[in-house]
Amino acid sequence: QVEVVESGGGLVQPGGSLRLSCAASGVEFTIYAMGWYRQAPGNQRELVARITSGGTTNYADSVKGRFTIPRDNAKNTVFLQMNNLKPEDTAVYYCYLDSLDTGRRYWGQGTQVTVSS
């Protein structure tokens, strides 16, 4: 059974940094991509960043230059390094992975990030 677990959320002041981690276990297939979405109250879930197994990355325009998405393929782990955080980055951040074999998407339970002074 595949399990996706996020960690590292919390409260941070504007301009601060935070690093989220996401570890997938029980994976017995080839992962095509892993990434992060976020959802703020009243808003739709939006893609923040993703990275493919080949290393191709995509970022939302709102986080380019501030966020990066390192990945450890061997450990089925992905991170979200968030720098120069802004109040508008406040949201629940969800990690996901896509199976190359079936196209199925697996989600984590989410971790809260709050940017406030």
How does this structure look, described?
It is a single chain. It is built from no helices and 12 strands. The chain has strands at 3-7, 10-12, 18-25, 31-39, 46-52, 57-59, 67-68, 71-72, 77-82, 91-99, 105-107, 111-115. It is globular, with a radius of gyration of 14 Å. The mean pLDDT is 95.
Q: Briefly, what is this?
A:
0% of the residues lie in helices and 53% in strands.
Any idea what the radius of gyration is?
Answer: 14 Å
Tally the helices: 0
Q: State the total count of DSSP E strands.
A: 12
Ranges with pLDDT <50 over ≥5 residues?
Answer: none
Morphology = globular
What is the end-to-end distance? 40 Å
Structural class, from helix and strand content? mainly beta
Biggest beta sheet attributes: 7 strands, mixed
Average residue pLDDT: 95
Strand percentage? over 45%
Assign a percent range to the helix content. Answer: under 10%
Query: What is the element string, with H for helices and E for strands?
Result: EEEEEEEEEEEE
Q: Any key phrases for this structure?
A:
single chain; mainly beta; seven-stranded mixed beta sheet
Give the helix/strand layout.
Blueprint: E1 3-7, E2 10-12, E3 18-25, E4 31-39, E5 46-52, E6 57-59, E7 67-68, E8 71-72, E9 77-82, E10 91-99, E11 105-107, E12 111-115
Parallel strand pairs: 2-12
Antiparallel strand pairs: 1-3, 3-9, 4-5, 4-10, 5-6, 7-9, 8-9, 10-11, 10-12
